[in-house]
C-alpha cells in the first residue's frame, strides 16, 4: 500500500478524531483496512483459478465480521479451525456447504454440529475418522468429509508455520499411512474429499505445488479404486513479502505453476477448494500507533508506542523472519524523512522483548509522531493477546480515503466483562 494513500487516510483519521487526536489522552492505536485492495484480492483469486472452485478465506487470518461479510458478498466461503470460528461463520450467514471445518482437535459435539449443519469437515487423523463414523450413526448428514493428508514435501523457511514435514502435527502422513488411507476410503464411502495444507509463510511456490501434486496423485489413485472425490482442497499458504514494497501476492504466478505441474486442477478433473488467509489479507491492512515517549538507554534510541506484541507477537519472537515495514509520520499524518538513525520501536507490554523493530534505520522520532506498521491485515488482530489487559483498538475500513468505523475500540467496561 503506497505511503501517500496511508498519509491521506491518516490525515482524515486525525481530522475525524479516530486516533483520539494528538492532544487528547486516548490510547492512539488504530487498525485500518483498505477495502479496495481487499476486493482486488478476492477478484484475483477467483480470476486465476477455475470457475466453480470453492475459495474460502481463513477466518484465523482475519475474523472481522465486516471483512468476512465482504468475502461472502464476493462468493467466498470460510475456512474455520475452531468451534468459535465455525459458529462465527455460520452466524454471519455463510452457506454451510461453503464452510470448511479444519480443527485438529474436534470434539464429539463439534463434529455433530458440523455434520448436522452440512459443513465440510476435514478429518485430521484416524481416530477422528472413527469418531465421525460414530457421529453419523446419530446424525443424518450428507456433509462432505475430506481427509487431511500430510504430503510430506518438507519445510519452508519458518519451522513453526511449516506443516508438511514428516513429523508435523497436522493431518495423516501420506507415505507412512498410505495403505490405511485406502482402507479408510474403502470402509467409509462418506469420505469424499482430500485436503492438504503445506504451511503458511516461508513455503515457496515449488513446495506448495509439490503438495498439490501429491494430493492430486492420491485423489486419482483413490478414484481409480472406485472411490468418490467430490472436493480437493489445496489449502492456503501463499506467502507475502513483508520486507518488500506494495507488490500484491503472487496468486497468478502460483496458478500458472499449478497449471503447468498439476493440470488436473484446471481441466475439470476435480472440484478444488482453497483456504487463503495471509495472501488475501496481509497487504490490505496497516496499523497506526502514536509515539508516547522517546528515550535513550545505553546509547540506543527507543520510541515507546502502543503497538507491541499484543498485535505483532511474530515480529517479537522471530524479528528476522517477520520484519514488517515501518514508516514514521508526523502529528498531521505526513511521512517523515530526513537523516536516518537506528531506532528500537517498543510496545507497551511488560517484558523487555516487546520490541517490534530493533535498530531499524528511521528518521528522527518525536513524541506525538505516528509509527505506521505495514502489511498488518492478516494474523494481527486475530492473534490479539490479553496480556497487560490492553484495550483492543478501533478498526476502520476505507475506500479511497473515506473512513468508516468497522469495530469500535474496546472500553474498560468491555474488558471487565471479559475478565469476569
Ligand atoms: N488452512 C489451514 C489448515 C491452515 O492451518 C492455515 C494457516 C491456512 C489455511 C491459511 O494459511 P495462509 O494462507 O494464511 O498462509 N500464527 C501464524 C500464522 C499461522 C497460520 C496457520 N494456519 C502467524 O503469526 O502469522
TrEMBL record:
Keywords: Pyridoxal phosphate. InterPro entries: Ala_racemase/Decarboxylase_C (IPR009006), De-COase2_N (IPR022644), Orn/DAP/Arg_de-COase (IPR000183), Orn_de-COase (IPR002433), PLP-binding_barrel (IPR029066). It comes from the Bacteria. Its cofactor is pyridoxal 5'-phosphate. Residues 36-281 form the Orn/DAP/Arg decarboxylase 2 N-terminal domain. This is Diaminopimelate decarboxylase. It comes from Pendulispora brunnea.
Amino acid at each position: 500500500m503506497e505511503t501517500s494513500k496511508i498519509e491521506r487516510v491518516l490525515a482524515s483519521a486525525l481530522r475525524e478524531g479516530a486516533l483520539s487526536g494528538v492532544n487528547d489522552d486516548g490510547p492512539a492505536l488504530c487498525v485500518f483496512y483498505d477495502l479496495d485492495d481487499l476486493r482486488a484480492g478476492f477478484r484475483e483469486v477467483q480470476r486465476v483459478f477455475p470457475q466453480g472452485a470453492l475459495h474460502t478465506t481463513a477466518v484465523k487470518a482475519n475474523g472481522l465480521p465486516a471483512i468476512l461479510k465482504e468475502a461472502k458478498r464476493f462468493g467466498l466461503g470460510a475456512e474455520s479451525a475452531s468451534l468459535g470460528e465455525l459458529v462465527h461463520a455460520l452466524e454471519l450467514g455463510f452457506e454451510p456447504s461453503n464452510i470448511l471445518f479444519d480443527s485438529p482437535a474436534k470434539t464429539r459435539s463439534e463434529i455433530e454440529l458440523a455434520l448436522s449443519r452440512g459443513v465440510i469437515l476435514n478429518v485430521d487423523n484416524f481416530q477422528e475418522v472413527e469418531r465421525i463414523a460414530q457421529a453419523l450413526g446419530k446424525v443424518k448428514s450428507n456433509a462432505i468429509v475430506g481427509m487431511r493428508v500430510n504430503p510430506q514435501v518438507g519445510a519452508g523457511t519458518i519451522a513453526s508455520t511449516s506443516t508438511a514435514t514428516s513429523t508435523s502435527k497436522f493431518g495423516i502422513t501420506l507415505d507412512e499411512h498410505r495403505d490405511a488411507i485406502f482402507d479408510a476410503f474403502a470402509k467409509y464411502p462418506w469420505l469424499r474429499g482430500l485436503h492438504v495444507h503445506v504451511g503458511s509463510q516461508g513455503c515457496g511456490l515449488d513446495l506448495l505445488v509439490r503438495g498439490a501434486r501429491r494430493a492430486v496423485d492420491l485423489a486419482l489413485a483413490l478414484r481409480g479404486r472406485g472411490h468418490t472425490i467430490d472436493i480437493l482442497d489445496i489449502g492456503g499458504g501463499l506467502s507475502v513479502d513483508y520486507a518488500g514494497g506494495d507488490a500484491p501476492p503472487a496468486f497468478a504466478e502460483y496458478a500458472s505453476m499449478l497449471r503447468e505441474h498439476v493440470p488436473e486442477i484446471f481441466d475439470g478433473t476435480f472440484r478444488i477448494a482453497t483456504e487463503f488467509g495471509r495472501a488475501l489479507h496481509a497487504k490490505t491492512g496497516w496499523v497506526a500507533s502514536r509515539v508516547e515517549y522517546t528515550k535513550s538507554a545505553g546509547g540506543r534510541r527507543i520510541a515507546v508506542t502502543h503497538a507491541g506484541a499484543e498485535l505483532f507477537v511474530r515480529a517479537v519472537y522471530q524479528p528476522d523472519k517477520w520484519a514488517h515495514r515501518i514508516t514514521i509520520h508526523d502529528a498531521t499524518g505526513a511521512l517523515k524523512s530526513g537523516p536516518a538513525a537506528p531506532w528500537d520501536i517498543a510496545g507497551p507490554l511488560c517484558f523487555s522483548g516487546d520490541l517490534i523493530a530493533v535498530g531499524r534505520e528511521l528518521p528522527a522520532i518525536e513524541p506525538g509522531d505516528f509509527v505506521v506498521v505495514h502489511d498488518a491485515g492478516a494474523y494481527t488482530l486475530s492473534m490479539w493477546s490479553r496480556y497487560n489487559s490492553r484495550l483492543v483498538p478501533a478498526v476502520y475500513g476505507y475506500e479511497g480515503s473515506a473512513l468508516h468505523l468497522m469495530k469500535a475500540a474496546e472500553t474498560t467496561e468491555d474488558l471487565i466483562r471479559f475478565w469476569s
